[in-house]
Write a structure and sequence with these properties.
Elements (H helix, E strand, L loop, with lengths): L9 E18 L5 E20 L7 E6 L9 H13 L11 E7 L9 H17 L7 H11 L3 H6 L3 E5 L3 E4 L3 E2 L3 E6 L6 H12 L7 H15 L1 E2 H6 L1 H4 L6 H7 L3 H12 L4 E2 L6 E5 L2 H16 L12 E6 L10
Parallel strand pairs: 3-4, 7-9
Antiparallel strand pairs: 1-2, 2-4, 2-5, 5-6, 8-11, 8-12, 10-11
The structure holds cytidine-5'-monophosphate.
Length: 332
């Protein structure tokens, strides 16, 4: 038995993520890299709305808000196709009619915030609900579909703070942070392609991983977040976390000027500044959203007067947000 298909639109919030740590453990035979990384979802999110659209034709995608790049590269349509293939056809299988998808894009793309993978995970989840297909795709099969679409997508299916290992397919949920620590995101206006950063990393490391120090920090943080950590205790670790990203040096080569922006922000805010994923998003932790908002105003003024340099073609985005903690999940 499958549950009834939905005829009303299915709405999903697709959160951004931040890497509090990112250790590259080593290069794999398939060209990807084994990672050890603590991921947290953020309040910053895209909004995905999915509705069945008749019985014939193709899935469609309409994007509003920020530039999401070329439509034919968008992971949302790929995720829906992969989900349809996994549901399959035949007796006992629900119909998988074309879907009309609207995506309100608020997470900057190619920023190290996982927006594309999050949209993909939300699309998998929403398509399953729209088709009434939850009985035919259990959690393990959804994870497989997600992993086939993007390395970060399995994390977003759970939407909880997690230790992410392997290529991204091993996701261990963590208790996370108590409270709602603020995060200031500063996203320099330069798109960074993840494969370019890994290629530079490999060039410098000859296929092996980082020197082990980030891996050790990542292990400690995963253990602490496994038990649950207060916002105050997380902030006390900010200095160590801000340098716990093995991709920092490679990202700085791919995005010239990134180190200067990071240094200027450290001077301006008097706080350690971390890098999310393969960049270029820089982050700072605050006890609350209010304090992150105040810092955003300070950074906007400093970008305006040039004391924080502008790099890339687009203006920097400055976004105060919070870490999503506990059990809020990815769904509305
Ligand atoms: O899976 P996804 O398309 O997000 O990965 C983008 C690129 O990032 C891959 O082509 C690969 O170059 C790199 N990558 C990696 N190891 C990972 C995740 C991504 O090498 N664990």
């Amino acid at each position: 038995m499958t549950e009834a298909a939905h005829h009303t639109p299915v709405v999903r919030l697709a959160p951004a993520k931040l890497n509090l740590t990112l250790a590259v453990v080593g290069r794999r035979d398939d060209g990807f890299h084994d990672l050890h990384s603590v991921f947290v979802p953020l309040a910053l999110h895209d909004v995905l709305t999915v509705a069945p659209a008749g019985t014939r034709g193709r899935d469609t995608l309409h994007v509003t808000g920020l530039d999401a790049g070329p439509l034919d590269e968008n992971l949302v349509l790929r995720a829906i196709s992969a989900t349809r293939a996994a549901v399959g056809e035949g007796p006992g299988r629900p119909a998988t009619p074309p879907l009309a998808v609207r995506l309100e894009k608020r997470i900057p793309v190619a920023a190290g915030l996982g927006g594309g993978s999050s949209d993909a995970a939300a699309a998998i989840d929403a398509a399953i609900e729209a088709w009434g297909a939850s009985d035919v795709l259990d959690e393990a099969r959804r994870d497989d579909v997600a992993a086939s679409v993007g390395s970060d997508a399995p994390f977003f299916l759970s939407g909880r703070p997690a230790l992410v290992e392997g290529r991204g397919e091993r996701v261990t949920p963590l208790t996370g942070v108590h409270g709602h620590p603020g995060i200031l995101l500063v996203i320099p206006g330069v798109a960074v392609r993840t494969p370019d950063v890994f290629a530079v990393f490999d060039g410098a490391h000859g296929g092996s991983g980082g020197d082990g120090s980030v891996r050790m920090t990542s292990g400690h943080l995963a253990q602490e977040l496994g038990n649950g950590l207060s916002a105050t205790d997380l902030i006390a670790r900010a200095g160590v976390l801000a340098s716990a990203n093995d991709l920092l040096a490679a990202a700085a080569l791919v995005a010239p000027g990134l180190i200067q922006v990071r240094r200027a922000l450290t001077r301006l805010l008097g706080k350690p500044i971390g890098l999310s994923g393969s960049g270029p998003t820089l982050w700072t932790l605050y006890p609350s959203l209010g304090e992150a908002e105040a810092a955003a105003t300070t950074v906007e003024a400093a970008v305006g007067d040039g004391s924080v340099p502008s790099i890339g073609e687009r203006p920097a985005s400055i976004i105060p947000t919070t870490i999503r903690t506990g059990h809020e999940g990815a769904a509305t």
